[in-house]
Specification:
Length: 425
Amino acid sequence: MNERVYDVIIIGAGAAGLAAGRKLYDAGKDILIIESRDRIGGRIHTTYDFNDIPTELGAEFIHGENAVTHELVKQAGLHVIPVDRYGKLRWAQYSRPALPVSELPPQLRATITGLFMHYQALPKDAPIPDISLAQYLRQKGWDEEALKVADILLAQTCCAPLDSLSCADLIREMRADHAGKQEFRIKEGYGELLKWYSRDLPMLLNTAVRDVNWGDDGVTVVTTREDYRARRCIITVPVSILARGTIRFNPPLSSEKQQAIGAFRTEAATKLIYRFREPFWDSDLTFMCHTGLAARWWTPGYGREGVAVIACFATAEKARILDEQEENRALTWGLTELNWLLGMGERDLRKLAIDSRRVSWAFDAYARGGYAHLPPGQAAARPVLARPEHDTLFFAGEATAYDSNPQTVHGAIESGWRAASECGV
Ligand SMILES: Cc1cc2nc3c(=O)[nH]c(=O)nc-3n(C[C@H](O)[C@H](O)[C@H](O)COP(=O)(O)OP(=O)(O)OC[C@H]3O[C@@H](n4cnc5c(N)ncnc54)[C@H](O)[C@@H]3O)c2cc1C
């Protein structure tokens, strides 16, 4: 047992844990961040060895021009590259090449714009009792073919099946949203931002927490290394990890908290990333979709000269299917669909690819999926997940971001700041 008694121990060095740690440390608190991985960042993971530019294996975009991340990027002396994802959206039907929405057949164009319109009207319609997004769209008259389009446009982003997304939770987020609609990448990579943000923070890597023994007099955190004590503890591990019981709480968390943890669902999230000799797509390509398996594609090098990297991001069932296959097979399937979308005809993209990688977050022992969502009837679980237990245990992380955008980096950061302020700074 380490005899030192910290003011606050923070479990997890992802965006939420680092944000909480930064606030507390800068306010003069004696803190320790405990992280199971050999790196910081959690579901942010930038690699610098795949290409000349940073490649994001996890979070990639800053969602919104007002997201708090921008201020940190500025302070760190880094830069953002704007990406017009939806304005430049290209869509493909079956195995045909992807076209800008304005050039699509009128019926498909009307489906895409109509679905967006109904989605945006959700707060006004506010269905009671709570129903799934799929049910809501059916009520609006959309048929099953249109729902396949909605899955790609609306549900894949949320890392959830369309019929498992609570309208009430989506509405809560829309009302709390202060981030805006524009999208950006960090030129130097999210990794550089976190390196700067975590400077000097007292931290243990390669140290997994097993037990949290807690009471009114504080906590003892039992780890794979040593036991550590503190007056307070902020828990920022993904809710999927809490649900698995990987960390034992003694005494157990309140039944309300346990129910809230059990209400969340976390689905698979998988990226297929390819590097080619040269970009054989036009420099205006930002985002393209179709209703296939490798359904959503984007160009990580958008806004830079000559970057020949393209990535597919799939979630929920599509990601599970990609994960179930042997890696090479999944990557080859991705190339087949990419060939359709880019209209490459007989060209064998396998011969042009220099490198490729599948990144399956469902296989990641400390994430067990992408990011969490709430099914219909469970929207109340989010604030309960965020609520402290007595004055000892505090909770942060993307899933707790009830007053911001869950499922995002900036939501996770804000949740970390909230937990720090609950600890008195
Ligand atoms: C593929 C993918 C793409 C995404 N794209 C975007 C995007 O473009 N834009 C965006 O804003 N967001 C995106 N997100 C979501 C974003 O990454 C998350 O919302 C955010 O990074 C979560 O931060 P967090 O601190 O809540 O959790 P995490 O980053 O998961 O941090 C929790 C930490 O706890 C650690 N931990 C777990 N168990 C233990 C234990 N027992 N002991 C000690 N430590 C433990 C983990 O290792 C981890 O480091 C994406 C996520 C994924 C997976």
